[in-house]
């Protein structure tokens, strides 16, 4: 198992344990995790802290050169907001846990030159399937539906 | 003067007074401001709280129906992250103070059916021109350059 996707899954599980939405992410620079996070909608009443956004926020202020030499891992296909953040900072590669329960803006990312690798990890799928079945309203709120 | 753009400019000015990047935004639902904010990169060491994101965050958790009946005002053309958030939540209209100092993802927004109105407000332009001249490194950091 990729240790960085494992770290993202650990973040997703932490979010679930807190009563939140189980999506996690890590930002990796030159083989080292420099930011990690998970969705904070429930925990902080946040409309913007999706997993990827939380990882970027926790990484703190960084020069463009760091982002451009980084990879972001996320347990779920990134929505338009998180994809937009990836484009803003010029992160060249995204590793996605799964895109079966939600298809984000992978095509937009690819069209702008971002490498998108989808693992279809069964643990990521199971986390989201179970969550969506139990909390469909919360999930719809998180994706603006 | 549009009172909502005035409120966004007031937010931008507040950010400048705090030593931050002068970009402000308000989210307006049925003629009432339900969220307001400004760029927090300097003040909170934030990599994600652009003006629009801060307004969305301060508006708190909302059902999709509210976003879909709202207008977001921003003093500067929205970057890919903020445009992605607008798309995520299905906000149908964006009023932009100016796009002369920075051109955001207006074409992407329009291609997805979002109405984008650009005021080219001279106060918005002046706020950014002065700021970029004084703090080019900070500005580049904020737009990932």
TrEMBL record, chains A, B:
It comes from the Bacteria. Its cofactor is Zn(2+). Residues 1-116 form the CMP/dCMP-type deaminase domain. One of its GO terms (molecular function) is diaminohydroxyphosphoribosylaminopyrimidine deaminase activity. The keyword Cytoplasm applies. Gene3D superfamilies: Cytidine Deaminase, domain 2. Keywords: Cytoplasm, Hydrolase, Metal-binding, Zinc. GO terms for cellular component: cytoplasm. Coiled coil: none annotated. It is found in: Cytoplasm. Pathway: Pyrimidine metabolism. InterPro entries: APOBEC/CMP_deaminase_Zn-bd (IPR016192), CMP_dCMP_dom (IPR002125), Cytidine_deaminase-like (IPR016193). It holds the Pfam family dCMP_cyt_deam_1. Homodimer. This is tRNA-specific adenosine deaminase. The gene is tadA_2.
């Amino acid at each position: 198992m990729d240790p960085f996707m494992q770290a993202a899954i650990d973040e997703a599980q932490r979010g679930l344990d807190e009563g939140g939405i189980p999506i996690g992410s890590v930002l990796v620079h030159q083989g080292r995790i420099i930011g990690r996070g998970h969705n904070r909608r429930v925990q902080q009443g946040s409309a913007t802290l999706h997993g990827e956004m939380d990882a970027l926020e926790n990484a703190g202020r960084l020069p463009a050169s760091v982002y451009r030499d980084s990879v972001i891992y996320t347990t779920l296909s990134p929505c338009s907001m998180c994809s937009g953040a990836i484009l803003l900072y010029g992160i060249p590669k995204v590793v996605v846990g799964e895109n079966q329960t939600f298809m984000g803006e992978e095509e937009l990312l690819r069209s702008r030159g971002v490498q998108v690798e989808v693992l279809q990890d069964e643990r990521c799928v199971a986390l989201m399937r179970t969550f969506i079945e139990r909390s469909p309203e919360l999930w719809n709120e998180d994706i603006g539906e």
